[in-house]
Amino acid sequence: MAGQTSQINRILSFEIKPVGGNDCVKLHAKLDALIQQDPSIKAEVIAAERGLVVNGEDELQLMKVRSSALLERWAEVGVLQINFRETIRKSAEAEGKYIRQTAGSGNYGHCKLRVEPNERGKGYEFINEIKSGAVPKDYIEPIEQGVQEALVLGIIAGYPLVDIKVTLFDGSYHDVDSNEMAFKFAGSIAFKEAVRKASPVLLEPVMAVEVTVPEEHMGTIIGDINSRRGRIEGIDHAAGSQLIRAILPLAEVLTSSAHGRPDYPMSFAGCQPAPPRHGPFGDDAATYAKKPEGPRPGAGSAAAELE
Asked: What's the rounded Cα separation, in Å, for the pair 201 and 281?
């Protein structure tokens, strides 16, 4: 989709699965055309394993697409979901071994990986530090393929891992039994184990809000922001009123049903660690998010899939 995708923050999405023999490519084109017709909608449509995904940054804009007559006729539509991410907070090392004997032939792959946090926003980086042929050159790429597949699946709640530097620094091979598949599995095993040791954390999107209110209503607004796990960034005086600047988790904007959706101007402000909760990784790897879900029949009403 040309012209509208470059500035889109992919913090909200829903999945679409064509039904009744409808063609995914044709549906993709029709959705692109629908979005292009409405300049107010900042969204993108991308191909996915099970159909299509519509990404965007504004709940109301995505609702326009999600509730369109086009999708009611052509597809099963998934629930609106927040695009959480995962990352790590410290360095760790692990090794992965894949050793199997099947039908007389062997499989041997062995590698050692180091993971460490990368600069925020820099993404994934793979470094090969193998020396003296500990792992033959032909098996370096399969190891990285195993790492990349594990990146997409995450380690906490099924969300992609971001801003991670992965270094391959050692390993071993067998002259007869080693093959690309074995090293791919070894890379995935080593990466997952290293991430588990590296203090993984769930990242949630947060929104910057600015609210101008009379001084007598300041307590109400600040109380509302606090009730949504918000953080006050500053308060400025402005001609008899107060300008409140704050950061709000997107999950709280969409799911605080007790208070209703806040009517504040807001914009995407990045991601921050989600608050601690008990789970398989302890308090340091809390999650407010369930694993991403696929499409459900019918458009229905949109709600973020959160606990």
From this structure: 9
pLDDT-derived band at 303, boundaries 50, 70, 90: very low
What CATH number does residue 70 fall under? 3.30.70.260
User: 66, 84, 102: which is the final residue of a domain?
Assistant: 84
Which distant-in-sequence residues (6+ apart) come within 8 Å of 108 by Cβ? 98, 99, 173, 174, 177, 178, 179, 182
The vertex-113 CA angle with 110 and 118, nearest 5°, equals 155
Q: What pLDDT does residue 240 have?
A: 79
Q: How many residues does the chain have?
A: 307
CATH number of the domain that residue 231 is part of = 3.30.70.240
Work out the angle at residue 220's Cα, subtended by the Cα atoms of residues 216 and 223, and round it to the nearest 5 degrees.
Answer: 140
Which residues lie below 8 Å from residue 56, measured CB to CB, with a gap of 6+? 8, 10, 11, 12, 13, 41, 42, 43, 44, 62, 65
Model confidence pLDDT, tens digit, residues 210-230: 988 888 888 988 998 998 899
Q: What percent of the chain has pLDDT over 70?
A: 84
Asked if residue 232 is part of any domain, the answer here is yes
CA 138 – CA 136 distance, rounded (Å)? 5
Structural domain harbouring 44: 12-84
